[in-house]
Structures are given as C-alpha cells and as structure tokens.
Amino acid sequence: MPYLAYWIVFVIDWAGTLAGLVAFVHALMQRSDAYTAADRHTKPMWLGITGGATLAMLLFSFYGPGMIFWLAGIVAALVYIVDVRPKLIEVQRGGSAW
C-alpha cells in the first residue's frame, strides 16, 4: 500500500473507533428510562451494540481481511449517533414544541 494510502486508512480506522467510543460513552451516561420513553431499545442493549461496535473497530481494520466486521461496527455506531442519540436528548429535554 502506498504511503499516503496507509495514512488515509489509518485516519479512517481511528476516526471510526473514536465515533464508536463516543457512542458507547454517551449511551453509558444516559438514564435507563430515557430509552423506553424515546421508544428505542433498552440501555443494556445499546451498551452492548455500541460496545461491540467499538470492539470490532479496534480488532479489525477498515482495509483488511476483517473489513466486514469493521463496517458493521461503524454502521452500528452511526445508527446510535444519528438516530438514538437525538431522540434521547429530545426526551430528556422535555420534547419539542411542535
């Protein structure tokens, strides 16, 4: 792999892992009842999903034989960040005025 490509893959690997870690820490810090109020799965389930996603991204590389596991991990972390996290924040702030 050329030198520049190596660094691009390196940055993608660690950016994905950081996203997974952010998702896990956020899931850990939320109240358990907020998940059911937001009509999402339970807190232990999201801790398992985001924790497993982070672990998969730590163990496997974006560019390697375990790439499918890395991709599954980033998808799981991004689903939490894009879908679950905003709903939890909305529920804990009291909903919207719409």
Automatic annotation (TrEMBL):
Keywords: Membrane, Transmembrane, Transmembrane helix. The keyword Transmembrane helix applies. The chain crosses the membrane at residues 6-25, 68-84. Pfam families: DUF2516. InterPro entries: DUF2516. It comes from the Bacteria. This is Uncharacterized protein DUF2516. It comes from Prauserella rugosa.
